[in-house]
Model the fold of this input.
Amino acid sequence: MSVILLLILASLTVGLIFLGAFIWSVRSGQYEDTLTPAMRMLTDEPSEKISKTNSKLK
Amino acid sequence: MVSLFFCIAYLIVLNGQSMPQLKSQLQNKEARQYRQGCGCCHCGEPCPADSFSLDAKLFCCFGCQTVYKLLHENGLQQFYELNSRPGVRIRSECAVAKWAFLDDPALQEKLFDYTDQTRAKVTLHLPTIHCVACVWLLENLFKLHPGIGHSQVNFSRREAAITFAPDKIKFSELVALLASIGYEPQLTFGETEKAAPSPWRKKAWLQIGLAGFAFGNIMLMSLPFYFGLNSFNGGWFKPLAGFLSLAFALPVVTYSAWDFWQAAWLSLRQRTLTLEVPIVTGLAAIYLTSAYDVFLQRGPGYCDSLTGLIFFLLCGRLFQKKTYDRLTFDRDYKGFFPLSVVRKNSGGEASVAISQLQTGDHLILRNGELLPADAKLVSGEACLDYSFVTGESEPVGCAAGGHLFAGGRQVGGAIEVETVKPVAQSYLATLWNNEAFRKHSDRDLDSQTNRYSKRFTKIVVGIALAAAVFWIFRDAAKSLKAFTSVLIVACPCALALAAPLTHGTAQRLLARLKIFLKNALVVERMAGVDTIVLDKTGTLTCADARGVEFMNAERGKRKAETGLTADEMNRIGSLARHSTHPKSVRIAKAFSFTVLPVAGFKETPGCGIEGEVAGHRILLGSPAWLAKCGISTGDKINDTMSVAVALDGEFSGAFKFENSLRPEVAQLIAQLGGRFELALLSGDNEREAARFQKLFGDRAILKFNQSPADKLNFIRELQQRCKKVMMVGDGLNDAGALKQADVGVAVVEQIGFFSPASDVILDAAELPRLAKVLKFSRSAAQVVRAGFVISALYNVVGVSIAAAGLLSPMVCAILMPLSSASVVVFSCGTTAWLGRRLQVQKLPVGSSVRPNLQNSTFKIQPIIEEAV
Done:
């Protein structure tokens, strides 16, 4: 019977981790624009140069 | 319960954009472009025979070829692979000098999101963004200039956030670069005062996420009790589940349901009973009863129902809060004014921001430029088009020293004016000082739901008290339980969902028809309308191809098609399509022609255009200009509105323009006339009074020569006679009336471009549907009422059980979701069915004539409509 206690604890931990991830994703603005990322993924080339250019500016 | 969960999940998906939908839309666009045949490789417009070519590709103009070359040189050729002919034709000159005023530090401070020593970040509104390729190109902007860093596009808002190094590329150069590849930022006076976007969306998602999390986990722990699994009943499990549930439910009741508490408090302070009052009473009753049960170990509590209730309420609320990022419903005159104007100073001319204008400044206005402040004419031939402000379509001339009003657009050569009033005190701006613009809509409090909830709350409290009193004499212990049980079960979740879901569904369906509603409550206000006031110019009439007539000098007045030979049409059309002047555009649209190459094209602003087509010299322009060029136009044509044509140096006739009635308008007025009281307001003079009186019938009120303030007052008078008024208008001149009216409908030629503040933005081509839309909104109101009846039936059952003191968590967990689910299914289903009937009845072919893509000035057709 005490195994149920373990299961509850495990499931709650997982649940809370995902709740934290959700809160982080909302706060970082991932829900602000849901249309453009869907279009962005249609273009193949990863824009690897962006990070370089950004560091150049600094 | 599970079915309800899927219902809500489905609604949430509807709210976003599903991938298959997006892909199919993209494919449609490509297929459509493919069918158009070969045109310019960059922008897809038809190419003349001697067009520019590079790499075996054809271009319609030098500008398109330049962009193609620029992109190729910088390794951005993928732009052309992502979408066929994705470019935008560049129509205005993109000299850096035009943007020089943007380097003013004070202005930059207002426009930039962020600056430091080496970097600056700015968010620009680029209305020409229209496809995947645009997003890709703008996000690879850094390849075009070493001074540009990261850029990120928000497609639905048509915005790009660009980081750049101001010491490597000046802001004016950045804007010029964007303009040179076809993405000219929209920089209006209003942009400098933009408010930060409200964070409600973030908060709404957090609240829903928290409620959903708690709901799921509490359900998990409550399941054993539902199925009566007795092995779980003993020992420590029951109190553990109870306390955990209470802990999870606490943030949901406080944080997630915060808006309900706030609204209920507000409504109590205003001494009304909105629906939030019984909701929070129910929430409090459920939570306190659960706590009581758990602490005294009497049962598992009602936390599962409680969190589920809040979760569904929040979902319904989010569903109702559909907004259209691309559209602005609250725009004042500042959104129409440019950011800068050319000021004359001692050294010469310089662009200056409008916010820095002072009384007494001398300004230079060129053809097509807008006068931002009331002014006095100093020199030049002023001919101002006030159609923007008054609706009067004929330009008004003015002698030197004469007074000119803000909002006028100069037609013709450059003029010099002296400002006499600050921008904010101009004739146009004073309209926004009217109290109609200051009041906030208290009307929303008087919604169908709130009227119903007043009676509902009183009845529920009455029954709860009656049950308590009844039990106190028989079984005192049951008295409190009966009282709280009634409050719990009567918590009007289903009732609260009926209106948001019906209105939200209606709003989405209408958006598919290019009828955009500011918020879902507008559906309800539309249902109550009994008087419709229409504007004339630009709303009922429009300047399109059908109003163009060619008056042949020899053969007399004819239609455009028959007054000219095919060869002449080809030549005139080919010449006219080179100019963006509204009259040239109308001529080019008026008949079909084969595009021929034009040599030596020259446009003289305010006068006309000339060029050589197939060896024939053609002049199109004002009769006075032709006379100046040595071509006699005779006595027949002497008005300023005509465009005279000279072929090979000989006058051959003139085009005349009239505003024609939009298609199907007569039918629409006939449909509306039966049910509504109609009125027509026009800034125009009375020359067409008889025609419109006949159209509207004898009962309708027709008023001409109306100023913007007159229109506003007319609406107010109607409202004082207890009329619910819908105003249908288009220009800034209707802005006051649109705001004052119960429902303001702005008719626009192109969705996403400027429209005055209003409740509804309607694509002009959909105007004939107005009668059906109004009928649809009345049906939606009936659906809401039917939803109330359904939820009331559940309440009768629930309250009977509760008043008998028999309510258990199990009954509650079944009854509450069931009532919500049936209301969700009923509201959405019935509204969607009604909406389908609305769409099936397609408009007759004649009315769906859209400007021919080949000849239109704007190619920009947003391909991915916002998710509806």
Observations:
- The mean pLDDT of chain A is 77.
- The CA atoms of residues 50 and 56 of chain A lie 10 Å apart.
